[in-house]
Design a protein that fits this description.
The protein has about 350 residues and is of the alpha+beta class. The protein folds into 2 domains: about 100 residues, no CATH class; about 210 residues, no CATH class. About 35% of the residues lie in helices and about 20% in strands. Strand 9 and strand 10 form a beta hairpin. Helix 6 packs parallel to helix 10. The longest helix is centred in the last third of the chain and has 17 residues. The protein is globular and about 70 Å long. It starts with 5 loop residues before the first helix and ends in a 12-residue tail after the last strand. The relative contact order is 0.14.
C-alpha cells in the first residue's frame, strides 16, 4: 500500500491540521522517503485537493497542476519530489491519471490589485502625506490576510538575542541590554521615533550582524526569553505560511491574487536601508507594524537582511526576560557588492 506524508507537499495546513487526523500511523513515506513520520493513504486527501483543483480550469495555453501548485503554494519542494513523482502522487490522490497531464489556468483572476494599492500608499506615506494619506488599502482584508500568517506558540522560538556595540572597556549590564528609553528611542524598521520596540535576533551572530559592527569592535549579546502565549505575524515567507487547504473554497483564488502583496509586505521589513535615508525609507514598514500591533499581535517576525537568521520586533519590550550578557569580539566583517546597483 502506497502512503504519503506532509513532507511530500511542504504545506503547513496538511502538516499541522489535516494529515495528523487522517494518519494511519508512522513509518517511511512511499514517495519522498522520509522516515518515522505520520503517513496517510493518498486518497484520504482527495476532498482537499479536489477543492484546490476547482480553483483552476482547463486551458491548452496553461500549465500542469503540479506546476501551478509549486508556483502558487510552494508545494512539492522536497528534493525527491520531482515532477514525475509529484504527478504520480497527485494522480493517486485524485484517482485520475489523466488530469495531471492536462493544462490549466486560474479559474478566475480577481481584479483587485492590492499590490498596486500598497505601492500608492507607500509612496504617499514617504513623500507626501505622513499622517493623513489619501491613498487607501482595504484594512479589513489586510487584517484577514495577517491572520493566515499567525504562528502557533510551538512554532515560535522562545530564545532570542540582542546585541549592542561596546563603546568602553566595561561590558553592558543586563539592565542596559533592553530597549532604549522612549525619550531617546530613534526610528527603526518597525518602530516610529519615541515608541521603543525590542529588536531580537535568532542567534548571537544574527543579533551582532544587525548592528553593523566593524572588524575588531566588541559587542555585548544578551539572551532573552519570550513566553509561549504571545501571538506573532510571520512575514518571512507568506507562501510557506498560507495553506490553501485551510481556506474557504471561494477564497482560494482571492488569496492566490493577494500573495504577491503579502510578499511585498515581508520585503518592507527586510530590504537594506542606508542610514542617511532611514527616516524616510522606514515609514512604510512602521505603518505596517503599527497596524499589526493594532490588530492585537505582540510582534512581527521577519528575515534578516544581513545574515541567514531571523528577527523579531517585539512591540512590548517588557514581555521578554533578559538572562545573561556575553561579550564578543568581531573578528571579520565580509562585504558583498553588486555592480550598477
Amino acid at each position: 500500500m502506497m502512503t504519503c506524508c506532509a513532507e511530500c507537499f511542504g504545506d503547513r495546513g496538511l502538516r499541522r491540521n489535516i494529515i495528523p487526523i487522517r494518519s494511519i500511523g508512522t513509518g517511511q513515506c512511499s514517495y519522498c522517503g522520509t522516515n518515522n513520520i505520520a503517513l496517510v493513504i493518498p486518497r484520504e486527501l482527495a476532498e482537499y485537493f479536489e477543492i484546490l483543483v476547482s480553483a483552476y480550469r482547463q486551458d491548452t495555453t496553461g500549465k500542469l497542476l503540479v506546476q501551478w501548485f509549486r508556483e502558487d503554494w510552494v508545494m512539492f519542494q522536497h528534493p525527491r519530489m520531482d515532477d514525475s513523482r509529484a504527478k504520480g502522487l497527485l494522480a493517486e490522490i485524485l484517482n485520475d491519471g489523466d488530469i495531471v497531464r492536462q493544462q490549466f489556468v486560474p479559474a478566475n483572476d480577481p481584479t483587485v490589485n492590492r499590490l498596486s494599492e500598497w505601492e500608492n500608499l507607500r509612496d504617499e506615506l514617504m513623500y507626501h502625506n505622513r499622517y493623513f494619506p489619501e491613498a487607501t488599502i482595504d484594512l479589513d482584508r489586510l487584517e484577514s490576510l495577517l491572520s493566515t500568517l499567525t504562528l502557533d506558540g510551538d512554532e515560535v522560538p522562545t530564545q532570542w538575542y540582542r546585541a549592542r556595540i561596546q563603546a568602553s572597556d566595561t561590558p553592558f549590564t543586563v539592565g542596559e541590554m533592553g530597549a532604549p528609553p522612549r525619550r531617546i528611542a530613534s526610528h527603526g524598521r518597525a518602530n516610529p521615533a519615541g515608541i521603543p520596540y525590542l529588536y531580537l535576533g535568532s542567534s548571537p551572530v544574527t543579533a551582532i550582524s544587525e548592528i553593523r559592527p566593524h572588524t575588531g569592535e566588541r559587542s555585548c549579546v544578551a539572551d532573552f526569553t519570550t513566553p509561549r502565549d504571545m501571538k506573532f505575524v510571520d512575514l518571512r515567507n507568506p507562501r510557506n505560511m498560507v495553506s490553501p487547504f485551510l481556506l474557504n473554497p471561494s477564497d482560494i483564488g482571492r488569496m492566490r491574487n493577494d500573495l504577491p502583496f503579502l510578499e511585498r509586505l515581508g520585503d518592507e521589513l527586510t530590504r537594506p536601508v542606508v542610514p542617511q535615508s532611514a527616516a524616510i525609507d522606514y515609514t512604510p514598514s512602521q505603518y505596517l507594524c503599527e497596524f499589526i500591533k493594532k490588530c492585537g499581535y505582540q510582534g512581527v517576525i521577519y528575515r534578516s537582511s544581513v545574515s541567514n537568521g531571523i528577527n523579531l520586533a517585539l512591540f512590548d519590550p517588557a514581555r521578554a526576560r533578559c538572562g545573561t550578557v556575553i561579550q564578543y569580539r568581531v573578528s571579520r566583517v565580509s562585504v558583498d557588492i553588486v555592480a550598477g546597483a
